[in-house]
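Sample entry (130 residues):
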Amino acid sequence: MANDLVYQPVNPSFGGNALNGSYLLSQASANNFKFLTNPASQQTATATSAATTSANAIKQFQSEITSSLLSQIAYQVGQEIIGENAQNSGTFNLNGEIIQFNRANGQVNINITDATSGATTNIQVPIPNF
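Predicted structure, serialized as tokens:
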């Protein structure tokens, strides 16, 4: 029931199928990239990549800390506006951003003014019933 085992080469240079040539060439080219560069330049590229990764991690950490602190400040401002002991009006100054709020007619009017450019954003929020 067994047949003879016949070896058929894959590489067309050794008698294999001619359609395999372009596939084998692309695989070899993809694997040769590490031999095409100077080892010294590879070490420099690796060191540069490690330094960049470290710098990116530090920037990401700084961004996360800043975001966390701003979130806490926003929460505290929100508590002053609509929390348990909410004020009827008030002003906050956050690094050149002036936040003014005023309760009137069942809503809170919030004005955010950029001190450097003078641009103003107005937000009107209905007062929630707790």
